Amino acid sequence: MKDTFKIVIAEMKKQHRHNFHSYSIYFSLLLWPIIIFFNTYYTYLSFDLTKAPVFSGLINSKQSLLIFLITGFIGYNFFYSMVQSAWQMGAERQNGTLETIILSPANWLAVVYGRSLGALFQNVWMFSTFSILIIISSRSLEVNFFTQIPIAFFIFTLSATVWGGLMNVIFLFSRDAAILNNVLDDPMEFFSGVRVPTETFPVWAKMISVIFPLTHSLTIVRGILLKTNIAWMEAAIKLSISLVLLFILTIVLLKLVEKNIRDNGNITFY
Amino acid sequence: MLIATNLSKKFVYKESKGLFKKKLIVKNAVNDVSLKIESGKIVGLIGVNGAGKTTTIKMLASLIKPTTGEILIDNLDIIKEHKKAKRIINLISGGERNIYWRLTAQENLEYFGALYGIPKDVLNQKIETILEMVGLTESKDIPVERYSKGMKQRLQIARGLINDPKYIFLDEPTLGLDINIAKELRSYIRKLADDENKGILLTTHYISEVEELCDYIYIISNGYIVAEGTPDELKEELSTKTQVVLTVEVLTEQAEVELKDILECKAEVTIEGENIHTIKVISKENFTAEIIRCLSSHNVSILNMKLMEPDLEEIVLNVLRRSE
Ligand SMILES: Nc1ncnc2c1ncn2[C@@H]1O[C@H](COP(=O)(O)OP(=O)(O)OP(=O)(O)O)[C@@H](O)[C@H]1O
Ligand SMILES: [Mg+2]
Asked: What is the CATH code of the structural domain delimited by B2-237?
């Protein structure tokens, strides 16, 4: 257990040291989403959304629209940074460092979650920006900075880490996993309700949105910040179930990938 | 002692034939390889490209699982207990991969050390010692991407020592290094065996390296061990020829006849020259003693004698040629 913790910390540290020099990561993680965010915000603003059936009841002011969108984008970015950390697994494979990791007795699960947490850690400062944005924009909504924001942060962190673990394992499996990135990314943004409330989805779309833990995380976080009457227990249970399922899937895939690598020795292929 | 018995590795993979057709291919990379590595000894594994050296080493390092066979380290079954085994072994590959180029030497070692769960203070002490040993102390805070090839290779060695392994596997450690650095590296390897009592297995393409370093040699071809022994044993058993060249004064006819008589069917004898004769004897065994006895009994004075030792490189080439 102590070793596991040590590995998680070492993995986070390594990632930070490895990426610190790369401004492109910061650019893609912050600048790009902010541009998209403001683009969306001002597009929405040009319609009178308080009367729009899509947002019926949920959004009744500019502030609540802002919070709705900010939570959507921040949540999405937590998850997106996971995909990026998984993507770097490809580089580790190519550089042979993945083989060096496998050479050690390190617990693979610890490595995988260390990678997700490492990617999140780099976004802590982004979270601060997020918090400040919320404070500025929601004075009339009385967001409690000391309780509500940490809870929101915790929910995003937990669910994104679990998601990131799975992404990392999938990238361990195949060097062609980059395709999956494209397949999963945009649907996640749409179906999780980053820009549009999932309540307004048709049934089939709702069924897809259930798969993504981002959906449930957003429901809960928005419920907290916008003080809407959501079904608390239901959302929390849904989130827990999806996280547990993802965790089990991660472990199963990890066992398979470990066997696959030991049998075929193809870890160095790229 | 590490004892590997009858190791075989079959790789099964699909090869695409056109867009939808796939063909299953079975590749026997290693067949029935048995070998031993003793503590404090350096064992060499030599063979041509694709002979199965890396595959063998990866099985020993628990990176891949043998299809059949057994590997024991001091009675620990390392195929079943591969997580345990990984604590007492390490693999160092030649080349510049396997380390993080954007990290410094210190940071690389901190990371890899943590993977072994080494406590922080012990690890820092250890890092200091091995950096000193491989001579990277001064450049420990420079990112690896600014290192020369030799420095990267030395960092690889440091990395391979981080868990204080009992057995170290080196896969072409001097690949692409200049002669000075390669020589320096060989002296580290020797020191690891002599001073730290580590068991070492080494693959290389340079026979001279094997001759200089190895206490025992395995020659592998097409996945089979085709010869093994100490360098001297290999020379003795496998040499196809010993060559003795003598320069003598006035070789009498009688002496010539007797010499040819003694060596008949056993050696190839050529005699050249008028007053001063040169006798060349090429044989499988060494007949120097018999030749000298015969010549002196006829009072032929020997001016010069050269014994050509069998060359390990030639022996290896011969063995490989025969095994094909
Ligand atoms: N993961 C793998 N899947 C399929 N075939 C493999 C795999 N790894 C190695 N082989 C095959 O097994 C054989 C032995 O390869 P190996 O890498 O062990 O040779 P080697 O002796 O190390 O060669 P070299 O001197 O070139 O490094 C080769 O024919 C190679 O193509
Ligand atoms: Mg090789």
From this structure: 3.40.50.300
Q: Ligand nearest B223 Cα, by number?
A: 1
Three-state DSSP at B314 gives helix
**Residue given tokens 């080439």 in the structure block:** B317
Q: Of A7, A13, A265, which has the smallest distance from its Cβ to B115's Cβ? A: A7
Distance CA B156, CA B195 (A): 20
How far is B7 from chain A, CA to nearest CA, in Å?
14
> Which-ligand-closest: CA of B220?
1
- Per-residue model confidence as pLDDT tens digits over B58-88: 999 999 999 999 999 998 999 999 999 999 9
**Calpha distance A149→A152 (Å, rounded):** 5
Average pLDDT for chain B: 88
What does the pLDDT look like over A128-175, one tens digit per residue? Answer: 666 666 666 666 666 666 677 788 888 888 999 999 899 888 888 776
Assign a CATH topology to domain B241-309: Alpha-Beta Plaits (3.30.70)
Does B317 have pLDDT greater than 60? yes
Burial-class residue A203 by CB neighbours within 10 Å (0-12, 13-18, 19+): exposed
Interface ipTM:
0.83
Q: How far is it, in rounded angstroms, from Cα B189 to Cα B134?
A: 11
Output the six-digit token pair for B144: 């690896």
Could you tell me the residue ranges of all domains in chain B? Answer: 2-237, 241-309
Q: Give the residue extent of every domain in chain A.
A: 2-264
Strand partners, B93: B171
* Among B26, B54, B60, B218, residue to substitute to test ligand 1 (most atoms within 8 Å of Cβ): B54
Query: Are residues A10 and B114, on separate chains, in Cβ contact within 8 Å?
Result: yes
Which pLDDT score, from 0 to 100, does residue A269 have? 47
Please tell me which residue, B179 or A28, carries the higher pLDDT value. Answer: B179
Q: Is the dihedral of CA A177, A183, A189, A193 positive or negative?
A: negative
